[in-house]
Amino acid sequence: MEFTELQRDMCRAYVNGGLGVLVSGIVWIVAGLVTQNISLQAGMVALFFGGMAIHPLSLLMEKLIYKREKAIGSNPLEMLALQTTPFLIVGLVIGFVVSDTHANWFFPIALLAVGARYLVFQTIYGIPHYIILGAVLIAVGFVSIWFLQLPPYQVAIAGGTIELLFSAAILRRPERKN
Description:
Structural class: mainly alpha
Shape: elongated
Strand content: under 5%
Largest sheet: none
Helix content: over 70%
Number of domains: 1
């Protein structure tokens, strides 16, 4: 199978990856609201456990709403997506450790990790939106740490809002035909 065929298969099976971005955006907003209304630690836990639910929830939506079948069994791009997951775990661990002395940095560091992972999704799906999404999330993470010093809940809600906006564009985008 040629590379573009592998990307088309991923777009078909995972609805361009848009449902994962949608669910992730919801998780980030929930984590922000939990942080605002309960505590930073509770928001961190919400992001961690909500993050673990992103893939299973998006798979369920792909099957129930879009009636999608799995990617072709030997599609190596599916493995590439899985192999980028440690970026997220490492980012959350770093954010957790740093939050002990810089509480406002947890969500920006997590955004940096998520943004870095989205850069790889351009290769997986062949959709340039992911480069822009990754770059925007990385920029928000950097700006939040070094310039704005926003409250943590605002950073989480901003990240979630950005993901929701991009998910709409990704889900509307026709699946790759070439």
